[in-house]
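<purpose> Linking amino acid order to shape
<body> The protein record starts here
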Amino acid sequence: IERFAGAGIAKESVSFARSLTSERALSEARVAALAQAIRKARPFVAFRRVYREPIAWLREHGGLDADAFVDEWGRPLEFDGARVSVRSLGPDGKAETADDLEAEVE
């Protein structure tokens, strides 16, 4: 790291890695929180309605900030009905890649 410090390359790389780590941690927390909110909403609403469009239902009735529905990269969190989970596409914005973040609802 020291030999590249003069050019600023290592410093920028470390800074980028730290920001990526904190963005990932914040997005993981949002994914988990939204999954938990969906779990908690189930008793109050018809089961099928919450699971058909739980994020839309929570936007309308959940009392959550708008930030609760987007990841740290500015993309909306998604509900996967087949897996019954909430997902962020991660920093690359592509589905089914290693950087995706996911939390099961059940």
Notes: The radius of gyration is 17 Å. Helices lie at 2-5, 9-41, 47-52, 54-61. Confidence is low (pLDDT under 50) at residues 1-11.
